[in-house]
Amino acid sequence: MVFEGLADRLQQTFKKLRGRGKLSEADVSEAMREVRMALLEADVNFKVVKDFIGKIKERAVGQEVMQSLTPAQQVIKIVNDELTELMGGTQSRITISSRPPTVVMLVGLQGAGKTTTAGKLALSLKKQNKRPLLVAGDIYRPAAIKQLQVLGEQLDLPVFAIESGANPVTIAERAIEYAHSHARDMVIIDTAGRLHINEELMQELKSIKNTVKPHEILLVVDAMTGQDAVNVAETFNNELGVDGVILTKLDGDARGGAALSVKAVTGCPIKFAGMGEKLEALESFHPDRMASRILG
Ligand code: GDP
Predict the structure, then answer these.
(1) Which of 239, 137, 274, 152 is nearest to 193 (CA)?
(2) Which tens digits make up the pLDDT trace of 112-165?
(3) Where's the SRP54-type proteins GTP-binding domain (predicted)?
(4) How high is the ipTM of this complex?
(5) Are 295 and 10 contacting, i.e. CB atoms less than 8 angstroms apart?
(6) Is residue 226 within 8 Å of 250, Cβ to Cβ?
(7) Distance between Cα 262 and ligand 1 center (Å)
(8) pLDDT score for 195
(9) Is the CB of residue 277 below 6 angstroms from any atom belonging to ligand 1?
(10) CA-112 nearest atom, ligand 1
(11) In what order do the strands lie in the sheet with 132-137?
(12) Residue 198 CA, ligand 1 centroid: distance in Å
């Protein structure tokens, strides 16, 4: 499970601290040195770690800790608060338009989990009594269209696809017309990915964005790729603008660096976490629960 290594390291550090009773500044500094190492080993962005430790140190050598009867508890609370803040503070939801359909565009590199996530998101919305329409916008891989159609069948939800000739912008426009005429209140557009970011991909995504004006552009990134995921998020956000990130494969043994860095580096909140291959395995991302998971 994600954060396992980090959680072990931090829990050991705090166990030592708890054994101390009253804390000196040196005790706090030593603990912070260990926290810093643990975060770097978890592949958290270097600058993010630096800022994070700075903030904690400032609070931890202040009065609220030094004069407390349970200083170690106070330090842990501060780390918990700051970890929560680092991951976005509060839960970030997707915008639901007051004039349906709400259009959600999923973007990301090939293999990140975009198509699977489209299905997961559709299921989650269906459970909230929404009427999602899945849209096959990846025209370059016939297998991707098929994959989405299979998901649609499993979920008993319609999939809008045009199998030959149409470009992704036309497909998206027609899909929204279809949603209007068939009373679908959520449109989830699965777009094409590439192995790497390139100009052609960005141009295509920008054209779709400019034409259909989605309410949400969600970037799907693979947590297993660590800082690469953060770099991908930064580029997509600069080039296209991203409203939120969906971090997939958090059920694997990702070290957690992406989860802890992406908001601080890009400003984009993580909105959902993919926790497995099954369609039910999508969770809303709660920064406070993630922080508690790390601190045990
Ligand atoms: P796409 O190319 O971005 O559309 O990626 P796919 O949706 O085809 O997913 C690529 C692979 O990642 C598939 O084998 C999925 O089952 C797997 N996958 C997607 N999300 C998750 C997740 O949250 N956890 C795990 N373990 N696997 C996932």
Answers:
(1) 137
(2) 999 999 999 999 999 999 999 999 999 888 899 999 999 999 999 999 999 788
(3) 269-282
(4) 0.99
(5) yes
(6) no
(7) 19
(8) 85
(9) yes
(10) 3
(11) 159-160, 132-137, 186-191, 102-107, 216-222, 244-248, 270-274, 282-284
(12) 21
Q: Which amino acid residue places its CA nearest to atom 6 of ligand 1?
A: 113
Helix (H) or strand (E) holding 43: none
Which of the listed residues 116, 123, 194, 271 should we mutate to test ligand 1's pocket, taking the one with most ligand atoms within 8 A of CB? 116
Q: Whole-angstrom Cα distance, residue 158 to residue 151?
A: 10
Contact 94, 271 (CB under 8 A): yes
In the three-class reduction of DSSP (H, G, I as helix; E, B as strand; rest coil), residue 214 is classed as coil
Contact residues for 71 (Cβ-Cβ < 8 A; gap 6+): 20, 22, 23, 65
Which tokens go with 219?
Answer: 């970037």
Nearest to 84 by CA among 269, 296, 289, 235: 289
Shortest-distance Cα residue to atom 12 of ligand 1? 113
Joined tokens for residue 16: 């030592």
Helices assigned H by DSSP within the chain: 4-18, 25-41, 46-60, 63-66, 71-86, 114-127, 142-155, 168-181, 199-212, 227-239, 257-266, 287-295
Question: By three-state DSSP, how is residue 190 classified?
Answer: strand
Give the predicted TM-score (pTM) of the model: 0.96
